[in-house]
């Protein structure tokens, strides 16, 4: 089975670490994507073999379009632990992908605020 993996927050501490580990893990049939906001972030994620994607993670139609277009079936949501809108949009898009393709989908939402502390 192939996996198309999206990491939101891919240029951050957790996302960059995860991209590095996934790239060097030697997993078969793994396509990496990373959600970025700026060109400098796009260059940073490319070094890990990830294709940068730019879209608004809080806009349900943009999330749906990205997930379906790239057939992303695994999402590591690392960009915002406090707003549910983005998580809901990803879950809906993944459910639609599963209904359309029958492929298994996975959504992981991670908060790193405890690693860094508040503020």
Percent strand equals: 15-25%
Mean pLDDT score: 88
Q: Give the total of beta strands.
A: 5
Shape: globular
How many distinct helices?
5
How is this structure best described in words?
It is a single chain. The chain has 119 residues and is an alpha/beta fold. The protein has helices at 13-24, 39-46, 60-69, 85-101, 113-116; strands spanning 3-8, 30-35, 51-53, 74-77, 106-109. It has a 5-stranded parallel beta sheet, sandwiched between helices. Strand 4 (74-77), helix 4 (85-101) and strand 5 (106-109) form a beta-alpha-beta unit.
Brief description of this entry?
With 119 residues, this protein is of the alpha/beta class. It has helices at 13-24, 39-46, 60-69, 85-101, 113-116; strands at residues 3-8, 30-35, 51-53, 74-77, 106-109. The protein has a 5-stranded parallel β-sheet with strand order 3-2-1-4-5, sandwiched between helices.
Name a few traits of the molecule.
5-stranded parallel sheet; globular; 5 helices; alpha/beta; 119 residues; single chain
Present the secondary structure layout.
Layout lengths: L2 E6 L4 H12 L5 E6 L3 H8 L4 E3 L6 H10 L4 E4 L7 H17 L4 E4 L3 H4 L3
Parallel strand pairs: 1-2, 1-4, 2-3, 4-5
